Amino acid sequence: MSGSAGRFITLEGGEGVGKSTQARLLQEALKTRGINALLTREPGGSGGAEMIRELLLGGDEERWSVRSEALLFAAARADHIRRTIKPALAVGRWVICDRFIDSSRAYQGGAGLVADDDIMALHQFGSRGLMPDRTILLTLPIDEAAERIRKRDGDSSDRIGSRSDDYHLEVASVFLTIAQAEQKRVRMVDALGTVDQVSGRVLSAIADLL
Ligand code: TMP
To answer: Whose CA is nearest to atom 15 of ligand 1?
Structure first.
């Protein structure tokens, strides 16, 4: 593969696995290789999508049904792709995105009991089904992840992050199912270890795209 074409990389995983830190370190590692990647996140990454983020993550648990939630994530994603991701890829720029469609499949799909086909149909409708070239799934044992969330957020976790341990266990299990089913796109990376160790693993997991 040529190093000149833009690549679309997403980072996925449960709460507290270090995605945001690793996304930033990947951007820095690419920079040292002469690649100026755009770093973005979901929900958010464009004006409209950031507004939807506030709606989704604020307020109490009962604010949205899981189906409304799935629609709002899909709407945010459609805006993010149209305004931010597609224009960057169109000029050959790499894009690193902190969460993307697999988060909807895990949080609203398997853990929220919405069928995967329905989540993918919304993605097809909103965003023509755009998929990443590579997805890094950061994995942690659930106890370690819970500990990191406590350290990070105290009591201020958002509407979705504050759901039950059972919900988050299901989220983790759906991510693993996706990784096993789509091994060409999705690479699992062990998120235990120092930040530098993990960032080395992340870089190895995209090395074939460079
Ligand atoms: P984060 O910015 O800390 O990753 O928080 C985003 C929250 O939104 C997190 O709890 C995961 C959740 N989420 C979904 O439920 N579905 C999605 O499609 C996305 C992108 C995020």
So the answer is: 107
Q: Specify the number of domains making up the chain.
A: 1
> Which residue segment(s) compose the domain that 205 sits in?
8-209
pLDDT in tens, 27-69: 999 999 999 999 999 999 999 999 999 999 999 999 999 999 9
CB 95 within 8 Å of CB 8: yes
Q: Tell me, what CATH number does 145's domain have?
A: 3.40.50.300
Please state, in angstroms and rounded to a whole number, the distance separating the CA atoms of residues 146 and 161: 10
Q: How far, rounded to the nearest angstrom, does the alpha carbon of residue 81 sit from its chain's CA centroid? A: 14
Please tell me the distance from the alpha carbon of residue 8 to that of residue 165, in angstroms, as a whole number: 31
Which is nearest to 17 in space by CA: 144, 169, 186, 202?
144
Residue 99 CA to ligand 1 center (angstroms) comes to 7
**Does residue 184 belong to any structural domain of this protein?**
yes
Residue 52 Cβ inside 6 Å of ligand 1? The answer reads no
Q: What is the dihedral of CA 99, 102, 105, 111, to 10 degrees?
A: -60
